[in-house]
Structures are given as C-alpha cells and as structure tokens.
Design goal:
Distance between the termini: 37 Å
Number of strands: 0
Strand content: under 5%
Largest sheet: none
Number of helices: 3
Oligomer: single chain
Helix content: 25-40%
Radius of gyration: 25 Å
Length: 102
C-alpha cells in the first residue's frame, strides 16, 4: 500500500517507508519525544498474511426513533404485520421487533 496524494511529501511512498521517514522528520524537527515497541493485534489477510490496516472514513449516524421522521417505525410495522412467526424457529416476534427497534 502506498500513501496517496493527500500525504504531501510522503505521497507515493510505501507505507513502511513513509513511517520511517515521518519518524525521521519528527526527530529532526525536535518533535519526537520517544519511540518504544508496542504490541497490539493487527488483522491480516487470510491468504497472503499482509496486515489489514483500518481506513479512516467520515462517520455518520441515523436517529432511528426521531418522532418527526422515524426510520425504525416502518421496519417494525412490516415485521409485525408481514412475518409469519409460525415458520421462524430461531426468533420470537418480540425478539425480532426488539432487534429492529435496537
């Protein structure tokens, strides 16, 4: 994986090269207090074992029970009215509605 155009002077560098260069730049500018090893769990690709790094993205949220515009109410109504719970083995009606309501 390479640093994209938003990476400024590190754009185009391999992520590992970029990390080393960033540490060097911070050290040269007197902005690095210390480095130390830190053990943590990083997910990896099942096939090739390369690390899977999180990708930052914009967070968004939906208010499900807003009285002015409830997103949950239509879903709950469909579950209650249209699901034949005699055929559902794993869930009771209350469990399904509870899941939809959150």
């Amino acid at each position: 994986a390479r640093i994209n155009a938003n990476g400024g002077p590190y754009a185009g560098l391999d992520r590992y090269q970029a990390r080393k260069r960033i540490l060097g730049d911070l050290k040269n500018q007197g902005l690095l207090e210390k480095t130390q090893p830190y053990r943590h769990a990083v997910g990896g690709c099942q096939r090739c074992k390369t690390p899977i790094e999180p990708r930052l993205s914009v967070q968004w949220f939906c208010r499900m029970n807003d009285p002015r515009n409830s997103l949950a109410r239509p879903a709950i109504d469909v579950v209650v009215q249209d699901v034949d719970f005699s055929q559902v083995v794993a869930f009771s009606e209350l469990e399904v509605v509870g899941v939809v309501r959150g």
